[in-house]
Design brief:
The protein has 97 residues and is of the alpha+beta class.
């Protein structure tokens, strides 16, 4: 099944206790696969997302959630309230779109 941006927004929604999402970038991988970067407003929110969603069963597939190394740079969206933005990589058996 295809997973859309809104599916990832729901999976990592604030109402479920996750931090605020800055943006989601879905990328194409090898044929038939893709992955996403979920950019949270704080590094602690990204770490929490990895802890709570790595290995999570979503639509019959296990998600793989990792923290991305580095940051998005010194741009205005890279910092909020003095905390560095966190990036979470999401992959699994789904085709993301």
């Amino acid at each position: 099944d295809d997973v859309r941006n809104r599916d990832l927004q729901y999976l990592f929604r604030e109402a479920a206790g996750f931090g605020r999402i800055d943006r989601i970038d879905i990328k194409n991988g090898p044929p038939g696969t893709s992955y996403a970067f979920v950019h949270f407003c704080t590094a602690s929110a990204a770490a929490d997302a990895r802890h709570r969603r790595d290995g999570f069963m979503f639509e019959g597939e296990l998600l793989r959630v990792e923290l991305k190394e580095g940051n998005s740079g010194p741009g205005p969206r890279a910092r909020e309230g003095g905390a560095q933005m966190g990036h979470t990589w999401v992959g699994g058996g789904h085709r993301l779109r």
